[in-house]
Each structure stands twice: as C-alpha cells, then as structure tokens.
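Please fill in the sequence for the structure shown.

STRUCTURE ENCODING:
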C-alpha cells in the first residue's frame, strides 16, 4: 500500500447544495431523495470524463499523454446517513451496508473516496449518496475516476475541507488503486483535475509536469462512439498489460518508457511488442503535440490511426468490433483518423472529424456497433481546478 502523504488541508467553509449547482448535480440530489427519502441538505460535486487523443497504455510506465477533460460528467449528492448505514444509488442500482467496505458493486468507488479521506484524517460520517451522469459507464471515458472525484469533491464540501490539485489526484488514486484495487495509471485523474476548456492537456507521467496546447480548429471535433462492449479496467487484461510494460522497462534497465528509444528490439520475444508499443506511443504523443501546435489535422489523424494499430497489434487491447468501427469511420470523407480510446477490451472509439462529416461518421460507426444513440461529439472542458475551485486549490 502506498504511504499516505500529508496534504495541505484547511478548513474553510461548510458547504451544502445551494445556488450554482449544475443540472446534473440537481439530478443527483433528486436521485438521492427518490431513493432514500428526504433528509439533511446534501452537498454536491461533479467531475468530467476524459478522452485520450494519443498516449494510451503508457501512463503507468511514465509515458506522455495528450488528453482532454470532456463536457460529459458524473455528479454525486451526499448527506450524512441518519442511522449510520452507508447507502448509494447509481443508475438504478441501490446498495446499502454497515461499513464502507468494498463489495464489487456501485458503492465501491464512492465509499472508497470516504475511506481515502479518512486516512488523511478528514472524518467523513456514514453517508447516503445519489449519483447521476451523462458520461457513459464502462465506455473507456474515465467514468470510474469521475465517480470517485465527484464523491471526493462533495465530501470535501461536506467536511469544509480544501485540498490542492495534486492532493486531489492523490486522493482519487488512493481510492482507486489502494482501496478498490485497480492498478491504473494517473492519466484519468490528472485530466479530470487539470483539464482546461479549449485545450488539450499534455501530461508527462514520468513526473508531475504538464502543458496545455490550444485546440486549433473551430470546424473539427472529436466524435466518440461506444462499441457496446463493456470494458473493465479492473480486469485481468489491463493488469497483465501493465505488468508486461513494467517488465519491459525493468529488463532494459530504464525507469520509464521515454528512455527506451529503439531499444525495444533488444527485448526478449515475449516482451518485444509490448516494449515497442510503450516506446512508440509516447513518441506519437510528442508528434501529436506538434501537430496540434501546427494545426495539422491530417498529421494528427495519422497519429490516431498509428496509435490504434499499435494498440491492436502490439498492446493487443482492441476488439474486432472496435477495429471495424475505426475502419468504418476512416472511410468517411472528412474523418482524419480514428482509434480506440481508454484501456480497450471494449469501450469506445474516437474519430477526429470535420463538422460537416460528423453525422455520416457517427452513422458509419453505429452501423458497426449497432448501438443507437451511442455517439457523442465532445469538447474539452474545464477540470476540477476550475469547476471546484472552492475545494481544490491550483498548484
Ligand atoms: C485506463 C486507466 C488509465 C490508463 C488508460 C489507458 O483509463 O485508468 O490509467 O492506463 O486506461 O491509457
């Protein structure tokens, strides 16, 4: 278990749901009341999902990622429970227990947020929690970290506590990795916290450095299409990908994938393709940053295509349906490139598309997925440093 660092927490105000709640947060409040009746005034919080443009399956080995916080989110409404039992309701599923223990259900990430805060000495009472979301679940868009972060923000408001941005990322990672037990990297949490509307965030996962690059086009956007195949970031496939990437770095004697260069070819046969993915993907992220700065959509599109090929052939996290969806998208004139997004093994594909071609591209992708309504045109959104500035201090 990772040691708990001390975080700059300071008491600053008691917050309850009041003016300024988003429609999604208002829905979470209603969901809470519908499920568990009227009670104390709830505190609310919400957090955005993320889309990775380039830089998949490299965050856990110190790679580089180009990503956005997106304008789809999860909201949580929380209030102390009158009888000391923990309750949660999310997308029609209700759970209840005596302790905030992990049970493999929708309560886990919410209660893990409370446990993570408790480990830092921020006492959180037994809670009733209602969740609402327009961010699709298990779609490769970071809904699990968004649930955790939404709950953390609401809990910080309830406790009248404040944390800095890196501290919030750390709390969310403690909840997800140490308490829920998912061996994820830090990309999703950092994107949701540090996202900036109108920009792409470039994360250097070898440390805490990040840059932002302006989204250079008004007529080109990111289309997301769910495959309908639910992905599981806590599953065995993800764990094994992470293990082999770490082994590849260890065999080469490097501390992170940015140091590999062309040395992936020295790896033993069983690690060579995994090593090639982490070495080349992080280079593609650097090239993506250049393409964004130059406003070169065809170049960025090619990088999306190459990233998909690497995820399919070297990382082996694609599915036949995702492959077919990206092929269908690329055939549409006005689509610059497409790839799977997130951990893979299902989830969604994204495409970089001219606005006029959006409908055709969405139709091409849903023609494969057969998920009616399963497409979203996403824009980059502000992360929690901006949207939850009352409880998250920038750093
Ligand atoms: C999931 C994990 C991230 C990252 C991506 C793949 O979203 O939570 O840490 O590893 O998969 O890039």
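FILLED IN BY: designer on duty
SEQUENCE:
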């Amino acid at each position: 278990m990772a040691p708990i660092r001390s975080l700059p927490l300071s008491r600053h105000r008691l917050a309850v749901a009041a003016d300024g709640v988003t429609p999604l947060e208002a829905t979470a409040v209603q969901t809470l009341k519908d499920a568990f009746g009227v009670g104390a005034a709830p505190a609310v919080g919400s957090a955005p999902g993320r889309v990775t443009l380039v830089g998949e399956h490299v965050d856990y080995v110190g790679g580089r990622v180009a990503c956005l916080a997106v304008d789809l989110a999860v909201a949580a409404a929380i209030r102390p429970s009158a009888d000391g039992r923990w309750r949660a309701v999310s997308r029609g599923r209700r759970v209840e227990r005596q302790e905030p223990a992990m049970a493999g259900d929708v309560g886990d990430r919410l209660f893990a947020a409370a446990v993570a805060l408790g480990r830092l000495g921020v006492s959180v009472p037994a809670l009733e929690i209602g969740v609402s979301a327009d961010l699709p679940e298990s779609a490769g868009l970071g809904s699990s970290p968004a649930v955790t972060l939404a709950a953390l923000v609401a809990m910080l408001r309830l406790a009248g506590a404040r944390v800095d941005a890196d501290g919030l990322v750390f709390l969310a990672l403690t909840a997800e990795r140490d308490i829920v037990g998912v061996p994820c990297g830090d990309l999703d949490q950092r994107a949701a916290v540090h996202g900036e509307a109108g920009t792409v965030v470039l994360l250097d996962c070898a440390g805490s450095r990040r840059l932002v690059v302006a989204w250079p086009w008004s007529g080109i956007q990111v289309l997301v299409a769910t495959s309908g195949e639910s992905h599981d970031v806590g599953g065995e496939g993800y764990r094994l990908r992470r293990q082999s990437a770490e082994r590849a770095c260890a065999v080469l004697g490097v501390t992170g994938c940015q140091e590999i260069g062309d040395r992936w070819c020295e790896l033993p046969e069983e690690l060579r393709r995994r090593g090639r993915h982490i070495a080349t993907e992080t280079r593609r992220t650097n090239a993506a940053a250049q393409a964004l700065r130059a406003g070169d959509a065809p170049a960025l599109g090619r990088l999306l295509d190459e990233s998909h090929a690497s995820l399919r052939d070297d990382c082996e996290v694609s599915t036949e349906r995702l492959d077919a969806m990206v092929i269908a998208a690329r055939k549409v004139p006005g689509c610059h490139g497409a790839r799977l997004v997130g951990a893979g093994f299902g989830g969604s594909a994204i495409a970089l598309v001219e606005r006029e071609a959006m409908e055709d591209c969405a139709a091409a992708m849903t023609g494969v997925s057969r998920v009616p309504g399963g497409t979203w045109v996403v824009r980059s959104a502000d992360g929690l440093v901006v949207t939850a500035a009352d409880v998250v201090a920038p750093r």
